[in-house]
Design the sequence.
């Protein structure tokens, strides 16, 4: 095997996808403690990875610009770094071409795409079957360069300045650590079928009436009005944090929380990665299943509709549509109550 001194890990899709790729970075660092390890990500996701202790460099792919020009710019950016190996965790033809044309000597990727000939180390795994967790699929590629993948560590770090900003805002709204902080994150940006927002509103009311929890609802800036609908008449009891924090500050908030309840989405994976208790709400669709996309190593923290699993969602043509609504507020409340009790909150 060619001696490896400089490695590039590529994952240019969404927040949750990148979070579930972070164990690859820590596994590579254990194997190659002196190596230069870089990661190529989408610009929006950069704040998640740029402070990782095990990462030396972050590159961004300005793929939204599109076209041949951005591809050749990417090739130049990769070539000038003289990487010895590249691991393409989320394969696309564009990215496969980029590392091949950049003449990276060791190119690791899937063996099941028509462009797999562009890789000279191929891993044969069908992710569409969702037999394993996404983090495990990613780690399989790291094994190709000898990484020990038996230990799964996300390595997420939180900036003190982000923690300070979060604590200051929570203090301004009289949120203190003596009572549990429960975060509801209802949006998923379309990554999976969602538990209805109306159910989140009912759950918020239940938490207000039957627990001493402090409740905040998070989302991006485009969801602020929808979050207001969840809060309803409880604006004095529920904190609307939609669009209030950047990604680094959101990570600090999720670490500060005692419980995060969310659909299949990036913030759920961030919360799990920093050790916060979570409840994930998942559809019974193979490509979106909790087996592959659930919070890592927490199968008991997931609720799925009690209906047959579908290979794909048929929408309104399905006799179980919309099955996500069949996860009752009572089910989520009971799981939340048990988790808060175990954390020491009555």
Sequence:
């Amino acid at each position: 095997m060619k001696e490896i001194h400089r490695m590039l890990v590529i994952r240019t899709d969404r927040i949750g996808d990148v979070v579930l790729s972070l164990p690859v970075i820590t596994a590579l660092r254990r194997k190659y403690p002196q190596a230069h390890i870089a990661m190529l990500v989408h610009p929006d996701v950069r704040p998640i990875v740029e402070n990782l202790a095990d990462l030396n460099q972050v590159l961004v792919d300005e793929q939204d610009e599109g076209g041949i020009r951005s591809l050749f710019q990417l090739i130049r950016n990769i070539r000038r770094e003289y990487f010895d190996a590249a691991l393409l965790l989320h394969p696309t033809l564009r990215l496969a071409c980029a590392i091949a044309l950049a003449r990276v000597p060791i190119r690791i990727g899937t063996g099941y795409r028509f462009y797999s000939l562009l890789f000279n180390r191929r891993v044969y795994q069908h992710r569409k079957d969702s037999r394993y967790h996404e983090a495990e699929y990613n780690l399989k590629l790291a094994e190709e360069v000898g990484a020990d993948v038996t230990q799964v560590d996300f390595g997420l770090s939180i900036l003190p300045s982000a923690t300070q900003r979060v604590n200051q805002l929570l203090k301004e709204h009289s949120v203190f650590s003596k009572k549990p902080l429960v975060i509801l994150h209802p949006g998923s940006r379309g990554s999976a079928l969602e538990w209805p927002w109306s159910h989140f509103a009912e759950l918020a009311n239940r938490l207000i009436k039957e627990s001493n929890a402090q409740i905040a609802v998070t989302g991006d800036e485009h969801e602020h009005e929808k979050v207001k609908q969840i809060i309803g008449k409880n604006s004095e009891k529920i904190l609307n944090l939609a669009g209030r924090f950047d990604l680094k500050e959101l990570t600090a908030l999720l670490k500060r929380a005692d419980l995060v309840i969310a659909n299949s989405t990036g913030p759920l994976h961030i919360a799990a990665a920093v050790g916060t208790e979570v409840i994930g709400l998942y559809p019974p669709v193979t490509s979106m299943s909790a087996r592959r996309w659930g919070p890592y190593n927490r199968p008991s923290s997931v609720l799925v509709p009690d209906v047959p699993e579908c290979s794909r969602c048929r929408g309104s043509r399905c006799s179980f549509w919309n099955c996500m609504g069949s996860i009752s507020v009572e089910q989520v409340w009971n799981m939340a109550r048990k988790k808060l009790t175990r954390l020491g909150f009555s």
About this structure: The mean pLDDT is 93.
